Amino acid sequence: MWWNYWDYCPRDERDFYRHLNYLLWNPVKHGCVTRVRDWPHSSFQSLLDEFGAERLRTQFRDYPDFRELAVTDDF
Fold first, then answer.
1. N or C, where is the chain less crowded by C-beta within 10 Å?
2. What is the pLDDT of residues 31-60, one digit of tens each?
């Protein structure tokens, strides 16, 4: 799943959130789970607990650069 990995330094806030969204949603994209919160090896649940669902919805909405992310409201 992570076969094309390389070190990367985000250029700015937008770039950081674009890549974070991609990483969080990758297990769903690859069919490992149907909801991102079900992937046990992710920090998504911690982010959800700390910042709340509305903040994460806003994050995915404001930084939608990975178009293949079919983000649902129930995560």
1. N
2. 999 888 899 999 998 999 999 989 998 998
